[in-house]
Fold this protein.
Amino acid sequence: MHMSTALLETAGSLAAPFPARRLREMALAAGADDVGFVALDDPALDGERDIIRAAFPFAKTLVSFVMRMTRDNVRSPARSAANVEFHRVGDETDAVAHRLARALEEMGARAAYPAMAFPMEAARWPSRMWIVAHKPIAVAAGLGRIGIHRNVIHPKFGNFILLGTVVADLELDSYARPLDFNPCLECKLCVAACPTGAIAPDGAFQFEACYTHNYREFMGGFTDWVETIADAKSARAYRRDMSDSETVSMWQSLAYGPNYKAAYCLAVCPAGEDVISSYRDDRKKFLEEIVDPLRAKQETIYVTAGSDAEDYVKRRFPNKSVKRVGNGLRVASIAGFARGMSLRFQRKRAGGLRAVYHFVFTGAERRDLTVAIADGRLSVEEGLIGTADLRIRADSQVWLRFLRKEANLFWSLARLKIRLRGDPRLLAAFGRCFP
C-alpha cells in the first residue's frame, strides 16, 4: 500500500517540541476519525507505563485514535453482520496505525503500534496478554469516557467505535485533557439488553458472566472446546456435548477471526451526538426496533454452572436456552488467585454471607491475604487484617491444584497440606461465591 501524498508531505526535519496540530493532521490523513494525545508520564497512565516501556522503550507520547463503525451492522440480531463490522473496522484500525507509524518513521521519529485486538502476547495467558490498554489511553487523551457498560463512549460517535494507539518518541507542544463530562446517559438499556446480567443497574460489572458467553470462541472458551474434544471417547460422545452448529461456529472463528456471541450493550447504547436523535425523538420506536429484537432472539447463552448468570438467564430470558460450559479461567498462581477473585465473584450467590477469611500460603509462593465478603461485596487485601472467621493455611501448589480440581480437599486436609481453623462450612460458602 502506497502512502498518501498528504502523509508524504509531512516528511522532513522534526521540530522539538513537535506541533500537536501537525500530528493530528497526520493521523486524520492516515484515516482516523478522531485523535488525541497523552504523554506517557501522565499520572492517568501510572498503571500502564511500565508495561508499555517494556515493549517500546522509546515511548514518550501515545497517539490514541478512534475508528467509526456502521451502527446498524452492530445493532443487528444477526451476529454475522455485527462481527463482520468488528473485523472490517478492526483491520482498518491496524492499517491506520501502520500508516501513521510509517509516516512518523519517514520523518525520523521512532514509532510503533500494538494490535487493535489480536494478535496478543498469548504466552502470558491467563495473565494480561495485551501490550497497550486502549481504553484508559483513549480516556486520558480526551476521546471519551467509560459508560456503565465499560465501553468508551465518544461524545460524537457514541460507543460505535474501535480504538487504536500509536507509540512515538515525540514530545508535543500540547496534549489533550480528559472530557469534563461523561456522554453516558445512564439509561440502563445496556442493563436491559445484556443476556447474562453482567451489567448491574448500580453500575457493578460481573466479568465472568460476560467473558464466559461473549468470548465463548476466544481464549478460555476455545481451550474448553479443545478439552471437550480430548475428553470425548467417540464422535457420538462429542456430539452429545457439542451440536453441529457449535462446531461449525468454532470453525468459522478459526477461519475468519473469532466471533463475539453478543455485543448488545454496544448495540443499544444511544449516547453520542450522531446517535442520540433516534432515541430522543421516539423512545418507543427505538426500543421496538433496536432493543426488543435482541432480547427476543432465541439463542444459546453460555454460563458456568452455579453462577449468577445461569439464574439470571432462566429468570429474565425464558426464550433463550442455557448451556453450562467451562471458561478456561484456571488459576495459575497465588497472585492470579488474588487478582482473579474480583473477576469471578458472584454477588447474588454471596447473598447472605458475612465472613472474613485469612489465607496463609506457604511453599513455592508465600503470601498472606485477607478476604472479606459482606452484603454481596468483596474485599481482597494483602496481609492478615482483623479477626478471621475462617483461617486457611495451605501449601500454595496444593491450593492451586485444589482450585483446578486436580487435588482432593479431604486428602489435602488429611495430609495437612491444607489446614482450617474455624467453621469449615465457610469454605463451602466461599466456593459458592466463585463457581
DSSP finds 20 helices and 13 strands in the chain. Residues 354 and 374 are 4 Å apart (CA to CA). The first strand starts at residue 34 and ends at 39.
